[in-house]
Each structure stands twice: as structure tokens, then as C-alpha cells.
């Protein structure tokens, strides 16, 4: 029995380097969030307040990002598949890191399940809440090719559809304009000289 859908060959990823990279990125976002929190404090803690007073935010962001990325890639490497289940496992561990702040087991479990479910659903729908769409790869290729070759309409076609005026001028517009002014108002408009070309 032959399958209509071909399985893509899975290539293992380096979980450690990806986790370190993600931890640094989310940690930098945490530094920004911590500095905003420090700025909004009623009491002035100085520039070191982002570490001493609101430094937990930096640790939270870094741990959530690191836990998510490590669990997602480790799951993909163990299962040898790249699908929405990896996002579920990664989201569970990332959410559990958020729940650790509450220091209760139900919070760890609850945050893990909520974040894992949300990220898995987002991954399952193709990163869009509207869904993946019904077009296959060939249709998408043809659509993009059509977009690349979709050039401007010829001026004659534009004039035929919209008419002249409002900045749209067809061939011999100036000559027809002079003729209309002459017929309607009796004023002779001199022809403007053509600009010298290179």
C-alpha cells in the first residue's frame, strides 16, 4: 500500500546551541521588560534596580524561552518528526516555567497545559489563527509566479477604464485639451515645446 503523502526526511537539530541562543534572546527581552518595570517603580532604585529589584523578570523570560526551545527540539529529535506535538511539549515546559513563579503544583500544571495547548494549536493551524488554507504547494507556486509577472496595465487600458483627468492622461492629451478649450472658450492655447531628449 503506497502512501499519497511522502514523509520528509528529518534532520536532527542541535538542541543545546538553539536553547542557548533562544535563552539569550528571551533574556534580552526580559532585560527590556525589567528596565520598564524598574522605571515605573515609585521609589528610585537606580540603574542596578533592573537586576536587584526586578531581576526576576529577566530570569522568568530567559527560563521560559530556554525551556520551550529545549523541550521542542528534544521532542523533535526523539520522535524524528517536525509537527505540532513538539510545540505542545515545548509549550508545556515553557508554561511550567511560568507556573514555577507561583510555587504551587496546580499553577505549574495549569500554566503548562494552557501555554502548551495554545502553542500547539497555533502550530497546527500553520502559525495563523485563520488556518493553513486549502491551497497546495503547486497552487502556491503558481500564485506567486502570477504575482511576480503581474505588471502595470497599459495606459490605453487604464484610460479606457477610468477616463482622462485626475492625473490620468492618454496619448495626445495636450492636443485634445487645447482643442476643447478653443471650442468651449475661444481661447487659443499655445503648444508647449517638447523637452529636449538625450
Largest sheet: none
Overall domain count: 2
- The value of Rg in angstroms is 31 Å
Helix residue percentage:
55-70%
Strand content: under 5%
The helix tally amounts to 8
Organism: Helicocarpus griseus UAMH5409
GO biological process, one term: mitochondrial electron transport, NADH to ubiquinone
Membrane topology: Multi-pass membrane protein
Region (Disordered): 162-198
What key attributes describe this structure?
198 residues; mainly alpha; 2 domains; 8 helices; transmembrane helix
Protein model, in words:
This protein is mostly helical and 198 residues long. The protein folds into two domains: 114 residues, no CATH class; 57 residues, no CATH class. It has eight helices and no strands. Helix 1 packs antiparallel against helix 3, helix 3 runs antiparallel to helix 4 and helix 4 runs antiparallel to helix 5. The longest helix is centred in the first third of the chain and has 25 residues. The protein is elongated. The N terminus is likely disordered. It is a multi-pass membrane protein. This is NADH-ubiquinone oxidoreductase 213 kDa subunit.
Amino acid at each position: 500500500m503506497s502512501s499519497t503523502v511522502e514523509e520528509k526526511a528529518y534532520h536532527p537539530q542541535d538542541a543545546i546551541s538553539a536553547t542557548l541562543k533562544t535563552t539569550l534572546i528571551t533574556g534580552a527581552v526580559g532585560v527590556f521588560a525589567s528596565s520598564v518595570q524598574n522605571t515605573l517603580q515609585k521609589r528610585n532604585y537606580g540603574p542596578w534596580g533592573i537586576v536587584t529589584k526586578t531581576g526576576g523578570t529577566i530570569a522568568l523570560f530567559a527560563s521560559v524561552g530556554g525551556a520551550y526551545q529545549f523541550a521542542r527540539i528534544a521532542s523533535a529529535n526523539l520522535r524524528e518528526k517536525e509537527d505540532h506535538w513538539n510545540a505542545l511539549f515545548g509549550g508545556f515546559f515553557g508554561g511550567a516555567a511560568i507556573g514555577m513563579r507561583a510555587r504551587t503544583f496546580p499553577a505549574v500544571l495549569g500554566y503548562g497545559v494552557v501555554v502548551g495547548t495554545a502553542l500547539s494549536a497555533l502550530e497546527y493551524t500553520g502559525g495563523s489563527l485563520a488556518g493553513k488554507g486549502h491551497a497546495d504547494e503547486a497552487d502556491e507556486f503558481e500564485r506567486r509566479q502570477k504575482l511576480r509577472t503581474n505588471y502595470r496595465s497599459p495606459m490605453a487600458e487604464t484610460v479606457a477604464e477610468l477616463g482622462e483627468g485626475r492625473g490620468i492622461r492618454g496619448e495626445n492629451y495636450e492636443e485634445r485639451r487645447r482643442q476643447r478649450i478653443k471650442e468651449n472658450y475661444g481661447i487659443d492655447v499655445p503648444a508647449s515645446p517638447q523637452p529636449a531628449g538625450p
